[in-house]
Amino acid sequence: MAIEHDYFGLLESGPDGSIFWSENVELGDQSVTVDLTAPDQEDVSEAALDVAASLIANIEDIDRSARNAMVDELSDRTSEVTEYILQQQASLGDSLEEMLVDISGDTHIDVIRSLQLMSMTILADEHGGSDPFAVLEYALDPDATDDVLLVNLDSQAGVLSVTSAE
Questions:
Q1: Total domains in the fold of the chain
Q2: Residues β-bridged to residue 118
Q3: What local confidence, expressed as pLDDT, does residue 128 receive?
Q4: Could you tell me whether strands 19-27 and 148-153 are parallel, antiparallel, or unpaired per DSSP bridges?
């Protein structure tokens, strides 16, 4: 079986009925891995693929919205964003400054600005549901695959939550 879509082309399902599509897209001067996946192609609608294509096309706006959500979390000292930044400060010490793209004097904001969007995973079978439809993965150090923040989005690209990968 297969699904045909204007943006994704022919999405063929594996022997277990799952679908997977992957591509790198450019965001500024970095490359972001975008994966679209679903465990059963029967659960993937044309509308879900249209929304997924829209998210990819608007990745710059999605990134801005995700970073704004991270900034909103800074007012909560126990938020995962705050904890992530404090952990980065503790583990990197003085070398943190070398990883920042801009130094404004507000380290928390500077860390959020310096995070790299590593990947966007679209869970196409979750369209319209309460579970995340897309997950953005951010890292300060692209080589530290365990030290990431995950921004969970709904089908309308609204931020559901920001969590750490721990």
A1: 1
A2: none
A3: 84
A4: unpaired
% of the chain surpassing 70 pLDDT: 98
Take residue 102 and report the two structure tokens written for it.
């801009």
Q: What is the residue range of 155's domain?
A: 2-164
Q: What is the mean pLDDT of residues 105-114?
A: 93
CA angle 84, 89, 94 (to 5 degrees): 160
Strand ranges (E), the chain:
2-5, 9-12, 19-27, 30-38, 116-123, 134-139, 148-153, 159-164
In order of 18, 22, 102, the CA distances from 2 in angstroms are: 10, 16, 46
Nearest-angstrom CA–CA distance, 25 and 33 = 6
Extract the tokens encoding 71: 């900034």
Provide the pLDDT for residue 166. 62
Going along 41-141, which residue ranges are E strands? 116-123, 134-139
**DSSP 8-state class, residue 58:** T
- Tokens, residue 27: 């965001």
- Placement of tokens 């869970």 in the chain: 123
Whether the CB-CB separation of 19 and 44 falls below 8 Å is answered with yes
Cα gap 133→121, rounded to integer Å:
8
Comparing CA positions, the residue from 30, 49, 33, 50 lying closest to residue 41 is 49
What is the value of pTM for the model shown? 0.93
- CA–CA dist 134, 65 (Å, integer): 13
